[in-house]
Every structure is written in structure tokens, then in C-alpha cells.
Design a protein that fits this description.
The protein is built from no helices and eleven strands. The protein is mainly beta.
Length: 121
């Protein structure tokens, strides 16, 4: 059974920084793309950043230059460094990982349970 565990959310003042972490565990053959999504109250879930197995990245326009996604393949982990945070970054942030497992040999997207980020003074 595969599990994604997120950490690092919390309350931060505007202009501050947070680092989100997500680690995958279980019977995993390989991990392809890893990413972070967020969902603000009353809004649809949106892509924040994504990183492929080769390290290519893409970001939502709203976070370019402020957020950095990275991964540690040895730890099956993905990180999101968030700087210059704004109140509009307030949302639940979800880890998303595309994995190949014994149960899903063609790959499947797995979601974390989410971690709340609140940007407020």
C-alpha cells in the first residue's frame, strides 16, 4: 500500500517563507512526475508546480520567481520552497505523485491528504 505524507504547512506572515515536504512510501517500482496543487476556499484545485523524473519543472504563472520545486529521488520525496508569500497563496496544498506500483503497473496519480498554508498578518 502506497502512502503520501505531507508536512510543512502553517501560518506565516506576508513576505515570509515556508517549505513543504512530501514523501512517498510503500511498494513503489518507480516515480515519474511529482507535483504540488492547491485549493483555496471556494476555488478549484490548481497546479502550483510540477517536476518530471528528469528534473524539468513548470510553474503556475502566479508563483513563478517565488516558489521552487525540487525532488530527492533517493527519498521518494518532493519539496516546495515558497518565498515572498502573499495572502492569495492561502490554500490547502496537495502533493501529487505519478507512480508505478505492483497494483498500478501502468502508473497512477496518488494524492496526499493536504496541508494548510495560511498567509496572514
Amino acid at each position: 500500500q502506497v502512502q503520501l505524507v505531507e508536512s510543512g504547512g502553517g501560518l506565516v506572515q506576508p513576505g515570509g517563507s515556508l517549505r513543504l515536504s512530501c514523501a512517498a512510501s510503500g511498494n513503489i517500482f518507480s516515480i515519474r512526475a511529482m507535483g504540488w496543487y492547491r485549493q483555496a476556499p471556494g476555488k478549484q484545485r490548481e497546479l502550483v508546480a510540477k517536476i518530471t523524473s528528469s528534473g524539468s519543472t513548470n510553474y503556475a504563472d502566479s508563483v513563478k520567481g517565488r516558489f521552487t520545486i525540487s525532488r530527492d529521488n533517493a527519498k521518494n520525496a518532493v519539496y516546495l520552497q515558497m518565498n515572498s508569500l502573499k495572502p492569495e497563496d492561502t490554500a490547502v496544498y496537495y502533493c501529487n505523485v505519478d507512480m508505478i506500483t505492483p497494483d498500478d503497473p501502468y502508473g497512477m496519480n496518488y494524492w496526499g491528504k493536504g496541508t494548510l498554508v495560511t498567509v496572514s498578518s
